């Protein structure tokens, strides 16, 4: 082998080792999979809810079988709790559940939407929440029972589809909670949409909730949201057994796939990846010897940066400093919304304190920056010095983040 070939092989091996080292040391990405499984500690698992329910209830039973089969083979009483993104009972299974409820038991179903037969039985209709004007997909929920904290609203800020009850049987239905698009801090819910209802059924009762995220780790661990979930569970008699469905869950407790078992072990996973990289290198070097040289076609040059720079220089040379400042300010506010997750609809002392705390900037520096932005917005024209000062303060603010 030539000296040049040995150098190539050495560089390849070092590159592979560097990639492996970087991959093994980098932080693990957050898993946003909507699992709802009791044993999952990921954001949309329900490990925390299960732990807290075990503390306050005398008997909590996890049911891993279909309710049709479980009710048929067991004589039980108490509360049967279902929550998941989607739950669809079969016709006979739903009839069995309703018969069980009519004997004095409680059925709670929490899902994004419900099957038509269940809604028709309770004389209900649902409709998706209009997201127009709610570009950040932020919502707030609230309970209405006067014995609970009815003054507080609780925020949920992950992108999702929400449904509400747009038709209810007013003679038999009790409204338990509302949902609405999030309108910012210290604001009340207006034009609230019903998302939790309770109805008597025979000798028991049925509670339907279109907000299953209330049982997830992500929602409960964002204080004070735990009070909302606790208020929701106050409708359950904890002195009787609580049966939590673990069958209609997106997340599975057991995985039978050989590849999942193989890749779940870190050392085996990286051995598998290194083998694939080795096979790829072999194909590249062997293919290079046997195939004809492929001519290199240079891709078209990306002119986006040059175009942007040209437009910016044109604005600057024509003395349109006011326009540049406005664009700079709008990009900065967008940066705050996306990075700091703060609403910029109202700039006040509370907003400045929150922004300073989240961005590692002092309150004085943050106040100075927004005071300058307000001052420039009120002017019809600005000069070079004011524009440069605005740019300097914004860049200093971002560098501390």
What does this structure look like?
This protein has three domains: 3-28 and 257-290, no CATH class; 47-245, Rossmann fold; 304-399, no CATH class. The protein has helices at 3-25, 47-56, 67-73, 91-102, 116-121, 217-220, 225-233, 258-263, 266-290, 304-317, 321-340, 349-359, 363-377, 384-399; strands at residues 60-63, 79-83, 106-110, 125-128, 139-143, 154-156, 163-167, 174-181, 193-201, 204-209, 242-245. The mean pLDDT is 82. β2 (79-83), α4 and β3 (106-110) form a beta-alpha-beta unit. It contains 14 helices and eleven strands. The strands form two sheets. Strands 1-11-2-3-10-9-8-5-6 form a nine-stranded mixed β-sheet. It is of the alpha/beta class.
CATH topology of the largest domain: Rossmann fold
The CATH architecture designation of the largest domain is 3-Layer(aba) Sandwich
Mean pLDDT: 82
- The computed structural class is alpha/beta
Tally of DSSP β-strands:
11
- Please state roughly what percent of the residues sit in beta strands, choosing from under 5%, 5-15%, 15-25%, 25-35%, 35-45% or over 45%: 5-15%
Radius of gyration: 29 Å
What's the level 1 CATH class of the largest domain?
Answer: Alpha Beta
- The helix fraction, in percent, is 40-55%
Would you kindly provide a brief summary of this structure?
The protein is built from 14 helices and eleven strands. The chain has 401 residues and is an alpha/beta fold. Helix 4 (91-102) links the parallel strand 2 (79-83) and strand 3.
Can you lay out the helices and strands and say which pair or pack?
Blueprint: H1 3-25, H2 47-56, E1 60-63, H3 67-73, E2 79-83, H4 91-102, E3 106-110, H5 116-121, E4 125-128, E5 139-143, E6 154-156, E7 163-167, E8 174-181, E9 193-201, E10 204-209, H6 217-220, H7 225-233, E11 242-245, H8 258-263, H9 266-290, H10 304-317, H11 321-340, H12 349-359, H13 363-377, H14 384-399
Parallel strand pairs: 1-11, 2-3, 2-11, 3-10
Antiparallel strand pairs: 4-7, 5-6, 5-8, 8-9, 9-10
């Amino acid at each position: 082998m030539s000296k040049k070939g040995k150098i190539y092989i050495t560089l390849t091996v070092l590159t592979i080792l560097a990639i492996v080292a970087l991959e093994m040391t980098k932080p693990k990405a957050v898993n946003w999979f909507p699992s709802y499984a009791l044993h999952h500690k990921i954001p949309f698992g329900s490990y925390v809810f299960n732990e807290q329910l075990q503390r306050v209830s005398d008997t909590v039973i996890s049911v891993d079988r279909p309710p049709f089969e479980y009710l048929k083979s067991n004589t039980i009483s108490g509360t049967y709790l279902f929550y998941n993104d989607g739950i669809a009972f079969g016709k006979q299974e739903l009839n069995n559940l309703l018969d069980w409820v009519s004997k004095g038991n409680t059925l709670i179903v929490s899902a994004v939407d419900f099957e038509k037969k269940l809604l028709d039985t309770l004389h209900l209709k649902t409709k998706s929440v209009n997201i127009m004007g709610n570009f950040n997909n932020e919502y707030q929920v609230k309970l209405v029972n006067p014995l609970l904290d009815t003054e507080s609203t609780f925020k949920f800020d992950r992108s999702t589809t929400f449904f509400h009850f747009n038709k209810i049987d007013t003679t038999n239905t009790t409204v338990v909670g509302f949902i609405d698009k999030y309108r910012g801090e210290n604001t009340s819910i207006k034009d609230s949409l019903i998302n939790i209802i309770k109805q008597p059924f025979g000798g028991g009762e049925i509670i339907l909730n279109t907000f299953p995220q209330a049982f997830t780790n992500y929602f409960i661990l964002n204080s004070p949201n735990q009070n909302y979930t606790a208020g929701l569970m106050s409708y359950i008699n904890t002195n009787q057994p609580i049966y939590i469905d673990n069958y209609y869950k997106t997340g599975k407790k057991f995985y039978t796939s050989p590849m999942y078992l193989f890749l779940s072990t870190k050392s085996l996973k990286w051995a598998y990846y290194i083998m694939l990289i080795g096979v790829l290198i072999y194909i590249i070097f062997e293919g290079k010897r046997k195939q004809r040289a492929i001519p290199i076609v240079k891709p078209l040059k990306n002119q986006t940066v040059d175009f942007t720079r040209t437009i910016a220089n044109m604005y600057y040379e024509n003395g349109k400093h006011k326009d540049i400042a406005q664009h700079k300010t709008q990009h900065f506010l967008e940066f705050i919304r996306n990075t700091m997750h703060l609403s910029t609809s109202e700039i006040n002392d509370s907003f400045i304190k929150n922004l300073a705390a989240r961005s590692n900037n002092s309150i004085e520096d943050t106040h100075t920056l927004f005071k300058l932005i307000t001052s420039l917005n009120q002017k019809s024209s600005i000069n070079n010095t004011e524009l440069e000062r605005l740019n300097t303060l914004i860049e200093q603010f971002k560098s501390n983040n």
